[in-house]
Amino acid sequence: EERLKTKELKELDISISLCPTILRHNSQTIVAWGDIEIELTSSGEIEFSVSDRKVISSRPLSLNRWYRLSANLRAHDVLTLCITELRGDPSEKKLTSSVTDGFPTKVPVINAHFCLAASRKNGIASHHFNGRLEAPRISFDGLKTFEWDFSKDIHRKEIKSHFGPCLRLINEPTRAVCGSTWNGSEFNWKHKPDHYAAIHFNEDDIYDFGWKDNFSWKIPNQTPSGIYVMRIESNGHEDAMPIFVCPPKGFKQSKLCLLVSTFTYAIYGNHARPDYDSSWQKRIEEWKAYPHNPAENPEYGLSTYNTHPDGNGICHASHKRPLFNLRPGYITFGAASCSGLRHFQADSHLVSWLHNYGIDYDVITDDELDREGIEAISGYSAVATGSHPEYHTANTLDALTAYRDLGGNLMYLGGNGFYWRIARHQQDPDLLEIRRAEDGLRAWASKPGEYYHAFDGAYGGLWRRNGRAPQKLVGIGFTAQGVFEGMPYKRVCFDADFDWVFEGIEDGPIGDFGFSGNGAAGFELDRVDATLSSDHEITILAQAHGNSFMLVPEEQLTHLTNLSGGDEVDAKRADMVYFRTETGGQVFSVGSITFCGSLPWNQFDNNVSRLLYNVMKRFML
């Protein structure tokens, strides 16, 4: 939107290309400017109105097709609306409708916000358009023209006009999407930006509530690094928000760095699970758990694991809005036979274990790792992840790789980690982008031609498809997924050189218990793949097989064959591994999302807890 003014005019022309993607019970505004509105009606027609005068197209538009719309207003003449269907090649056009109202009118003087994809009255936006818009153009008296090219500066939040003011994008609609001229000849928008001259708008785009500050709190100097919770109350209501306090920049307070996966937290933020059922509320009430769920409150904006009302995947995420599943006590799996905790809440199992053993640690989040690189973690004896460090930028992977290769000790204590590539917005680093390209276990699939990020122009999707498989960093990578259940590991390495890992542990199953999935190896499993991690001599310490699990898509070739070249059952496993780098760095990886959930079992007195203590003691010497 932007505020535009006019003087007295004889003629006004507005044109724009559009591709509607869904009809709603109310009209959807395409253009709103003072008394002038162009809308998509609930039945699919285009309505052009000026004050109390209007003209409606003679037939409805088809969804997911491109049209060029021209609305003309002449003083002492008539309203004219012309709609032309665009079919692939712009030269192939089909006249859809051309109508006039047949009554004299006049061109109003306007001093109002010029809005696309919504109307704005009394500061409140409504009647949002769902679909794609391209090449809006305003012509005054056939001479002066405002024209905006959406193919320019795709990575920015402002759109410059050839003449006149910029348009300001609100709530980050999706850019780098196929426009009316895209024909499959190029898949990278940076190579043919004119094929990507569209913006996809959705009524539920919401990434920054823009709430004003009510108070501020300065972290006292000497505050130990760690995870804190701020609790606020007002009029009988309360909320609790986690805060991650890093050590002062350049000063290490502990030998151990706990890497908090805030990017993954945000990407999953407000995930409305398709299996959610209101019956979960009974357990939530009994356990006095966090009561609210995004499945019941979609107005706060959903996650990148959900879709917009028109079926297009949500590809942006931000923590600048309340995120229900980042609240202490939030239960992800309300019908599970275990605690049902994931992400931030599941990572608290590891945090409580560190406190129980009196192991000091500093907290570094993905934000610092991305901004500062290896400087954020250099100097620590060991760096440990939580249960699910899934989403990473190129900068975070570079930093972890450099830390390891310079002799650092890395502990990957989860599963399905380092899996998806994401991008940060250059103007607003709190805004994240995900493109779910051709492969991987996906909640939705990006459309052909839309695999490249708008924020940085890089190819999206799996890091594995970007040549940086997780196996290259931590020795193992995502291979199989099942329901939220776990199994025990079985020791498979009896080399005396690795007895230190199993010191104090009796023979038998390791982790046939746990608050996450009732077992230490579960839900999502990682394994060794020599074709992807050939640079290291990896020792498999223990294994767990998920016979009832399914291989992830990137592992499956046909209904009979898979990339391992062996039996599918053998490929569906969790590998607990260890290896050293040439510079003396050590890597320990557990290959399971539910591993940390076994640590607090029996008041931390169990073989999983002992095993991790043995490894951490060695890594922090």
Structure characterization notes:
- The strands form eight sheets. Strands 2, 7, 8, 9, 13, 14, 17 and 18 form an eight-stranded antiparallel β-sheet that branches. Strands 23-21-24-26-35-34-32-30 form an eight-stranded mixed β-sheet, with helices on both faces.
- The chain contains eight helices and 35 strands.
- 11% of the residues lie in helices and 31% in strands.
- It is elongated.
- The protein has 621 residues and is mainly β.
Provide a quick synopsis of the model.
With 621 residues, this protein is mostly beta strands. The longest helix is centred in the middle third of the chain and has 14 residues, at 343-356.
Essential attributes:
mainly beta; eight-stranded antiparallel beta sheet; 621 residues
Radius of gyration: 28 Å
Structural class per helix/strand content?
mainly beta
Please indicate the percent range of residues in DSSP E strands (runs of 2 or more). 25-35%
Helical segment tally?
8
State the shape: elongated
Poorly predicted residue ranges: none
Sheet having the most strands = 8 strands, antiparallel
Mean pLDDT: 92
| Proportion of residues in helical segments | 10-25%
DSSP summary, beta strand count: 35
Distance between the termini: 58 Å
What is the fold's blueprint, element by element?
Elements: E1 2-5, E2 11-20, E3 28-33, E4 36-40, E5 46-50, E6 53-56, E7 66-74, E8 79-87, E9 89-100, E10 111-116, E11 119-121, E12 124-126, E13 131-140, E14 144-147, E15 158-159, E16 167-168, E17 174-177, E18 198-201, E19 226-234, E20 237-245, E21 256-260, H1 262-267, H2 280-286, E22 316-317, H3 343-356, E23 361-365, H4 366-372, E24 382-385, E25 391-392, H5 394-405, E26 409-412, E27 420-424, E28 432-434, H6 470-474, E29 477-487, E30 490-491, E31 521-527, E32 539-545, E33 550-551, H7 568-571, E34 573-580, E35 586-589, H8 607-619
Parallel strand pairs: 21-23, 21-24, 24-26, 25-27, 26-35
Antiparallel strand pairs: 1-10, 2-7, 2-13, 3-4, 3-10, 4-5, 5-6, 7-8, 8-9, 11-12, 13-14, 13-18, 15-16, 17-18, 19-20, 22-28, 27-28, 29-31, 29-33, 30-32, 32-34, 34-35
Helix pairs in contact: 4-5
